[in-house]
């Protein structure tokens, strides 16, 4: 660790290499946490949706957290509709909320709406459109706007100010010594994330594997980053490269997840054997540590809150908490967000479609997923993925998603379905217009 770094991080003083007498109980605690997310078979599957916005001035220059009409000011304006607030120990406003909707800020003041769970796409569309109207009403009079795009349109990441949140300072410190992409992820990127339920351990593991197999396809369909570090991108799927090079310890594929023998114990061991970055600390709120969670909690069983925190410190393409979070999509305009959520719903909440996806991706390995990402970054819709043209796979995925939705919800797929049919993306269309 760079001893001259400006952020001085308190650490928890225990040996780096220790025996772990509590290891089995910690594995059990993590597995129990995952299993607590199992929904009764009688419960209909729901969707959680998170959409990050990049706040800019009308000339597309950055808007930071501080200052006149900064994101702190924006959160204050939203308080009338979102009365529940979250502040740091110094009193800085970090989020506002109301039932089933939370507005939070990402490391460089990207504004996220996390909403749901939703039983239907009508409700999701209404919620996100209403929030966009709220943002426009506040921002437009002061010459600002909220963009739904995968990467900041004008700024280099390191020129963007971090918000006053202690954990982000430590994460920035950690990522800065693992190459440039972690800091770019934190400051420059913005995403759309969709979360789904599971009904058993077997259902959870099946959906995890299928979601990872679908990640390259979702990344292509939802590619919306025409600019990287203030310049036109040099390849497709910018978000894919950022996350592939961010931190191999905690990004990309969960090790072993494509193996049929993979289970929740393997997932728990992965969490325990990865550097923590941050752990809750009574004196300082957060303490920095490069030791593994297994070493930090070597002699006692983790609490549920500690397990929840550990799970949150991983940024895989698909992440397991008490739901499955599918994470590869760029931030998208609202009609495309709902279309993407519709694809996920149609695929993962249809028993027939799960069977079809099992057959479609039966032989896909971890190496195949990584090869697919590389092929799509280089060739887009001209690529071969899993031994066949990606365009054919994308058509099949859209066909299955359409069949998995009700007749009422099928039209919501149209925005992304049209892009797939044209073999193009929002990012490519933006390049053509600029």
From TrEMBL:
UniProt keyword Ligase, yes or no: yes
Q: Which reaction does it catalyse?
A: L-cysteine + L-glutamate + ATP = gamma-L-glutamyl-L-cysteine + ADP + phosphate + H(+)
The yes or no answer to whether the keyword Nucleotide-binding is present is yes
Q: What keywords does the record list, in alphabetical order?
A: ATP-binding, Ligase, Nucleotide-binding
GO-annotated molecular function: ligase activity
Q: What is its EC number?
A: 6.3.2.2
Family in the record: Belongs to the glutamate--cysteine ligase type 2 family. EgtA subfamily.
Its biological purpose is as follows: Catalyzes the synthesis of gamma-glutamylcysteine (gamma-GC).
Identification of the protein by name: Glutamate--cysteine ligase
Identify the species of origin: Gordonibacter faecis
Q: What is the lineage of its organism?
A: Bacteria, Bacillati, Actinomycetota, Coriobacteriia, Eggerthellales
